[in-house]
Amino acid sequence: NIPVIHNISKELQIFFDNFIQRFRKKIKINKLNTSSQFLSITKELEVSIDVVRNSPGVVELLPYIIEFLMKVLIECPDPKIYITVIYFINAILCNQCFFIEPYLQQIITLLLSLILIDIDSLEFLDNILKVKVISIKILKTIIDDYKVKYPNLVYQMKSVFEDNIFSKNYLTSFGAIESLIMLGPIFTKQAWTKEKEEKMKKYLNKI
To answer: 97, 111, 151, 177: which is deepest, by most CB within 10 A?
Structure first.
């Protein structure tokens, strides 16, 4: 069921209802592999994305939209759906009327999940690589915006990525390495000890 949010306008509740319904419809159509319907519902969701990007009024829905996006990532492991999730995250960050600091941890968690996510099938390789690259760029923007206020943020991210350099899934490893490069040459050099260099050679030979 779509949650009823108290103390918001009827218009906002209708927008939120449509947002949830469109997203769920896209997930359902994607599972059925109906390409024409998938394109149609994607265009409908683009309208919702545009509203989130440009309307100051939807700020009251922000925690509920973020919560729903997190549920989608957990419940629907599909690269085509991940792309829509990342577009919504980007729209949230582009809206200058939003004060996102209370939701920063949740947004970063979403981005890390997308950067380090793995898939067993190579069928959607292009999509998953696209999701990772876009997520890394968005994370870099957040780090650049908040590194002065939260100086430990960079080091926390560095630690997360170092832990995933030698993941069993090479796509997770790719996300971790690309993210370290994004953080800058100093952090990449710190992460890249001689021991890890040798380990990486063996790792690359495996895959």
So the answer is: 111
